[in-house]
Every structure is written in structure tokens, then in C-alpha cells.
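INPUT
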Amino acid sequence: MCGIVAYVGSRRAYPILIKGLQRLEYRGYDSAGIALITDDNNSIVTYKQAGKVSDLLEFIGDNDTNGSIGIGHTRWATHGPPNQINSHPHSSSDGSFSLIHNGIIENYSSLKKVLEEKGYIFKSDTDSEVLMYLIECVYKTQLKESKDICGDLFYDSIRIALNEVVGAYAIVVIDKNNSEEFYAARKGSPLVIGIGNNEFFVASDASPIIEYTDKVIYLKDEEVARLNKNQEVEIKTIDNKKKSADIQKLEQSIESIEKGGYDHFMLKEIFEQPKSIIDTLRGRINPKTNDIVLGGVKDYESKISTADRLIIIACGTSWHAGLIGEYLIEDLARINVEVEYASEFRYKNPIVTNKDIVIAISQSGETADTLAALEIAKENGALTLGICNVVGSSITRTTSGGTYTHAGPEIGVASTKAFTTQVTVLLLFALRFSQLRKTVDRENYDFLINELNAVPERINQVLNLNDSIEKIALKFKDASNFLYLGRGVNFPIALEGALKLKEISYIHAEGYPAAEMKHGPIALIDEEMPIVVIATRKDNYEKVVSNIQEVKARGGRLIAIVTEGDTEVKSIADHCIEIPKCFREITPLLSIIPLQLLSYHIALMRGCNVDQPRNLAKSVTVE
Ligand code: M6R
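OUTPUT
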């Protein structure tokens, strides 16, 4: 979703902003823009353009880009189409100020009406311009009424204006009369401040900052920071309480956000999965006793061991991980698990009490629906835990405890390593809860821990099949529809395989529990229809074989994911991809790999932008 980058210091701001915007491209956007206070210190120059950052660069050409303070933005359209006027930055009506904004101002139309009555004429359709004009209006009113104008007038105007706002925002505002400082504020949308030597960087996430400094502040909700290159950072809440800055060390490396020799981030991230799972497991399984230690959860173990049910809330791929979690936790720990779309949970008047444990799963930790659903769970007294990838993200701050996935930055919009590390954490949860509730005997427990430790090496074996999967992709790249089938723990894999294909190749794909096929989707099957079936051993294998026969009898073209050594499915399916033998609970971590690769190759062969698929955003910070 929208991306913010800003710089104030003594370097030229322009290259920092452009590079920052390029680093933020992965978030998903459809227009981009920058504004700089020019060196003569008297004007703000703004460049914005629909399309990609490369279109913006072409548009700017040789125009003036001097200045050592500026703001940049990638916009993912919500209010109004992605055109030049709606792009950010948005200037105040008199051109004195300029603002970039992420999030949604929910009461923008009532604010707009009031401002229009005061004579403001809006150029764009956006809620962001309303916020800019609101700040300007408060500033002008204050200026008129103020007998003794102190240096804090603009700071206070921003603060006061933000008190009027309902909704979410991360903003940076510049004032053409002050090239030494700008202001940043957030509520519900992430914002990171990077501290350099007499310079500050601001961004929606750490990726544009990482190469300049490792000292960062994660601004908290309803905080406004004044960032003056000659002073220490100053933070106030919107109700005017001074706050001290919590400076943290950024643990990411620049390599982690670059392609490292791969053609695409998605491919790099698929191939990183053995390493990311090792990182997820690191330090969490005692090598001598096999006991699982989850630091962020252990304080709540007594509640977990007597819980009647867990509720998992998530969206998209994280919801699919949650569905796998349901199978794992119910099977191993015998706790009732309900998995809900966060967007449905938040509006359905959910039954949730202080007896419940609500687990939010989110790669970004910023998904608006998941955050809102969590708030409802908290209001009703439930214990809330998070499974997140991004350290310090909003969900990690909202929950009482939880576990990081440690997948490292995931830049490709289509989730791959974030998903498998979420499933790994859920396996750790299921096994730990089974220990607490004594539902799995020691022998089976130790066996499962060994199986879990063997996953990275087994994923490597599946990754070795990349070339043959590419050949299969070539045969199916022109299909218009796909059906994915699986049972048990592999039913969510069917859903996830279908989601991967549709989001990056734009081929329509559906995932179904294999047995449901004859209740409807079987009507779709003909010689044109490719069907991907997960038919691994031990997971209702015979039943899936029957489903495969039903498909074949109707002429469907079959790609099957099978266990190595399989002969039965091989004799029926058109193409088989073998994954190593493993315990049933572990299969999803292996069976998803060929499906990720299949989607990647098909999308590439169709000329799609695999890392930044159309219309999609990496971090969905609006509902
Ligand atoms: O950051 P989150 O895990 O909360 O994001 C949830 C979904 O938006 C996300 O998984 C989305 O479905 C991905 N594009 C899937 O590849």
C-alpha cells in the first residue's frame, strides 16, 4: 500500500527520495510523486505522475531537483483514480505547505464540507488533500488569533488538526519557509524515523533508510515528531504531551532487501525458505530435551493449557496458514480452533470472551482488518497473541504476546517464505501445546521434532525440481482456469496454491477440498481444465486417488504432487511432482513449494510482473 519517504539534512534530498521510492515499490502503488524545498528556501517544487517511479523519473527529466529537504510518496489509489492530480504530495491552497499521507481519513467528507464552506477549493478527489487543507486552516486560524507567535505554531496546528481526524494516517509535512525541519505523525499506519548525523529520514518501513543509518524510532499512534536537522528529535502526542524518543537498533541488512543475483524477489524468497525456516526454529527447540521454548508465549502457557478454544484471525495467505494451524492444533493438542477472516470477524458481532485466546497471524503486522479484529478481541477481554514477521509492527504492539516468524524482509507481494514460516510457528505452537496438555506421547513428540528439524533439507530437495516444474509450467501457461484440490492439512495448500497463481499470473484459479469437487466444481472439468491435486501419502491417499480418477474420467489435465516413490497416482496423472516422504503434519511445508514455483514460472511466461502484481499491495493498511 502507499509508501512514504522523506529526508532532511545536508545531502541532496532528490536521489535519496527516488531510491527510497524504488525500495518501496514492492508495497504496491499506481502513482508516485516528490516535493522539495528548493535551495533558495522560498518555494516548494512538486513533481508527480501516474504510473511507476520510472514514469516519474522520465517526467522529471532535467528539471530542477536541488534542495536538501523533501518528501516522496507512492500512492495506492483509494479516493479517486490514479492520476496526476490525485497523486501525492498535496500542497496547501496557498502553496506554503506540502503533505504526504498513508491511510484513510474516514470523516474526510464532513471535514471537506466544512472547509469548502470556509472557501477552500479542492483540486483532487483525495482525503489526503482534505487533511492538508485542514492543517492549513488550523494554522491560519491560530496565526490570526495568536498574539504571541512562537515557533511551535505549525507543530501545534498539525497536532490540533489531527485531533479532528477519524481514521488512519502516517504523514510528513513540509513548510516552504523552513528548510531545516519537517513534521511526521502516525496513527494506525506505520512510520519509521531514521536518525543520521544532523539528518533525519522518515519512511513507511525501514527499507529506504537501511543504507544510511541503523538508529531508528518507530513512531507510536497519535504521536507527532518535529525533525530538525540541527536538533534532537522532539515528540509530542496529539493531545500535547511530551514523549521521549525510544531509539532502537535496526537489525536488517541491506542484502536482505536486494535481489542477490535472482531475477525476482519472489524467486529469491522461494529459494530462501530452507534458511528462513532454520531462522524460525533457531533457539526455540532445546537440542538435548527437544522441549520447545517460545519466549513471547510462555507467560500465557497456563491459560493455554486449560483453554477451551483458540480463535485465529488473519487475511489472505496468513488465513491459509491459520487453517493449517487449525488442523495441526486440533490434531496434536486437541484444542478447538476457529479460524476467521479478520474482515468478517470484526463486523459479525463475534462471540468472544475473557476465556478465549485470539491469535492474529500477519506477515506485515499492519493489516487493517486484522488490527481492528484484534482490538475487538481485546475489548472483550480475550488474551491476544500475534504471529508476525515485521518486528515492532502494529500487531506486535497490540497483542499481549506472540512469536516472530523471523522470515526476513519479504519484498515480493505474493507471500512465500512468510507463509511457510507462519506454518512453522503454528507447528511449534501445536507441539508445545500438546506438551502442555499431554496429548502426544513422548515417542511421537520426539519423532515430530525430528521431522520438523528435517524440513529445511527436504525443501532443498523440492527446490531442486525447479527446472522440471518450469517445463510443466510451459505446458499450462495458456490455461484460463485452474482447479486446485487437496484434503486435510493439504486443503489449505490447495487454497494457497490457487491464490498464488491468480495473484501473479491473473489466471482464474479455485482451491477446493478434493471431496467437495463432486458437489459443484466437477461441472467445470473438461479437456481444457488443468487440475492440481495434492496426493501425498498418509493424507487420505486412497480417497484422493478416487477423486483423481473422477477428474481423469472427465478428461481433466492433471498435475499431481505426490510422495517420492508413488506409483499409483503416477499411472493416472499427466504430470507428477515428487516431494520427500514426511509425517502428515509436515507435508504442507513441502507441498506448497512446487505450487509456488509453478505460479512463478507461469506468471513469468505470461509476461506478468511477478514481484508487483497489478492492483495488489504488500501491506493492506486500509480496510
Ligand atoms: O501482512 P498480512 O500477512 O496480514 O497480509 C495478509 C494478506 O494481505 C496477504 O497474505 C496477501 O493475501 C498476499 N498477497 C498473499 O500472497
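end of record. The longest strand covers residues 178-187.
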